[in-house]
Design goal:
It is a single chain. The chain has about 140 residues and is an alpha+beta fold. The protein has one domain: Lipocalin (Beta Barrel), CATH 2.40.128.270. Helices cover about 20% and strands about 35% of the residues. The protein is built from 2 helices and 9 strands, in the order αββββββαβββ. Strands 1, 2, 3, 4, 5, 6, 7, 8 and 9 form a 9-stranded antiparallel β-sheet that branches. A hairpin with a 5-residue loop joins strand 5 and strand 6. The longest helix is centred in the first third of the chain and has 15 residues. The protein is globular, with a radius of gyration of 19 Å. The N and C termini lie far apart (about 60 Å).
Length: about 140
């Protein structure tokens, strides 16, 4: 009897807890806006490109590191790995130049990903979050 009472309370409390009603975004064909690189928050700025990436269905990736545009390949057969990237070579002013390099280094270190709702984390081989992104529709 005591067990049934505890079970009823648990079920009652569970029914009151909020349910995440936001479905997970698909990996592909989304504009993934960079929010953090190695724990550093990126702030929006009108005078520079927004750091982002887009993964296409043909295993191609393109985007911006916040200064230069890049494109390359990716593979999802074992987690998520990015291939060699080609990039424009514009001179970037500090601190954007450092953040751009850190973002591309984090992409190189990516071994897997995790999507929860509109947020995606790019993880390295040790499971550390290297890049945190937010999904929007393609621009």
């Amino acid at each position: 009897m005591k067990f049934l009472f505890v079970l009823a309370i648990f079920i009652g409390l569970s029914a009151c807890s909020p349910i995440n009603s936001v479905p997970d975004e698909p990996l592909l064909d989304r504009y993934w806006r960079v929010r953090e690189v190695d724990g550093k928050l990126l702030s929006a700025s009108d005078n520079r490109a927004e750091a982002h990436l887009v993964l296409d269905t043909g295993n191609r990736v393109h985007g911006s590191d916040g200064c230069n545009r890049f494109n390359g390949s990716y593979d999802t057969t074992q987690g998520l790995r990015f291939g060699r990237m080609a990039s424009t070579m514009m001179a970037c002013i500090p601190p954007i130049d450092l953040l751009a390099r850190e973002f591309l280094m984090a992409l190189n270190a990516t071994a897997s990903y995790r999507i929860q709702g509109k947020q995606m984390d790019l993880l390295d081989a040790e499971g550390r979050i290297r890049v945190r992104l937010e999904a929007t529709f393609l621009k």
